[in-house]
Amino acid sequence: MQTVLEVGGLKLYYRTRQGLVKAVDGVSFTLKSGEVLAIVGESGSGKSSLGYAIMRLLPENVALYEGKIVLYDTDRAFDIVSLDEETLRREVRWKRISMVFQASMNAIDPVSTIGDFIYRILREHRPLNKNESLKLAADALKSVGLPATVLNMYPFELSGGMKQRVIIALAIIMRPLVVILDEPTSALDVITQANIISLLKELKRDTSMILITHDLALASEIADRIAVMYAGKIVEVGDIDDILTSPKHPYTMALLGSTPTLRQDKELGFIKGQVPSLINPPPGCRFHPRCPFAMDVCSKEEPPEAELARGHKVSCWLVRS
Ligand code: ATP
Ligand code: SF4
Ligand code: MG
Predict the structure, then answer these.
(1) Looking at residue 276, what DSSP letter applies?
(2) Per-residue pLDDT tens for 285-300?
(3) Where are the alpha helices (DSSP H) in 33-111?
(4) How far is the centre of ligand 2, averaged over its atoms, from the C-alpha of 273 (Å)?
């Protein structure tokens, strides 16, 4: 399989009155064509920040944004970190890589029809007239299981599940190479969640996905690989089977231990302690204050990344290549 996205040493820090928030702090991974990579971790671990960093949608208080993000199309590669804004807007964002933002279904303009809402967003990225855009929108709605009549409806006429489908339709409307989905099911009831999960399973045939979620059960239903994020870093990444049946990092083990059955949207808060502040993260291994296996070295030096079979990578002093 070909690499469609390569992320290396990516950092995104925010400036705050309390100090620098190191939300993404040296993240590396690759995404292959047709693959679903889940980014899993507790609230505040930097998952959404990673999504925004990949899209290069940065807030005003960004203090540091560096590293490598390369998107590979068949005949062209785009270096997202250094690309000029115009090319990024015209050629990359939305067209080749798009994002379903966390809780975005609540951000659909309440006073526009769905058709007008989609048209306004589309024309920012492509010189389309309204009819062309409505045709594209109708096709995208069809592929998420919604009839074209939805284009004439207002958000208040749609259920939560339908709104989420509209948002997913908008993300795939330009047939991007990669879609980033940030907590795509978290605001939905269990049955609607199950419907959205089946939809994502269908869509993964056509596009590579990065699925951001705190829900390991959701990740295990859709993903081919899982990257576990803790306090701004990826601490373990591997094929779904390796992660689920043979986790190596104590944090991944704890996450699995706190996911008793599939499909239960359990919060992960009951791992002892909390995700540390990203302003002054613990030295050495950031998980050491919560780790039952912590040794002397863990609070002093950052663990190196060990590479096991099939691209299974782990950053823990207990694991050697
Ligand atoms: P959740 O699961 O709750 O969505 P997350 O893993 O997506 O969490 P982020 O939203 O990326 O985490 O936030 C990571 C850290 O960065 C948090 O401490 C958050 O408060 C902080 N943060 C996010 N955006 C900003 C910002 N613009 N300025 C300062 N701090 C920020
Ligand atoms: Fe625990 Fe040490 Fe491994 Fe960190 S490096 S997860 S503290 S054993
Ligand atoms: Mg988030």
Answers:
(1) P
(2) 999 999 999 999 999 9
(3) 47-55, 85-87
(4) 15
C-alpha closest to that of 316 among 240, 248, 242, 238: 248
Whole-angstrom Cα distance, residue 250 to residue 124?
45
Classify burial at 265, counting beta carbons within 10 Å of its beta carbon; exposed 0-12, middle 13-18, buried 19 or more: middle
The conformation of residue 107, written as its DSSP 8-state character, comes to G
Q: Whose CA is nearest to atom 1 of ligand 1?
A: 43
Nearest of 21, 16, 96, 23 to residue 55 by alpha carbon: 96
pLDDT digits (tens, 9 = 90+) for 2-11: 999 999 999 9
Q: Which two tokens stand for residue 87?
A: 């090319």
Which residues are near ligand 2 (CB < 6 Å)?
Answer: 249-250, 285, 287-288, 291, 293-295, 298, 303, 316-318
Kindly report, residue by residue over 189-213, the tens digit of the pLDDT: 888 888 899 999 999 988 999 999 9
What domains lie within the chain, and their CATH numbers? 3-96+179-192+202-272 (3.40.50.300), 104-173 (no CATH)
Cα-to-centroid distance, 265 and ligand 1 (Å):
20
Q: How much helix, strand and coil, in percent to the nearest 5, is found in the chain?
A: 35, 25, 40
On the question of pLDDT at 261 being above 60, the answer is no
The span from the CA of 143 to the CA of 76, in Å, is 27
ipTM passes above 0.90: yes
Distance, CA of 184 to CA of 193 (rounded, Å): 9
The β-bridge relationship of strands 178-182 and 233-239 is: unpaired
Residue with tokens 């009839």: 147
Q: Tokens at residue 285, please?
A: 């291994």
Task: Please tell me what DSSP assigns to residue 201.
Answer: H
Task: Residue 308: count other Cβ atoms within 10 Å of its Cβ.
Answer: 16
Q: Is the CB of 214 under 6 A from ligand 1?
A: yes
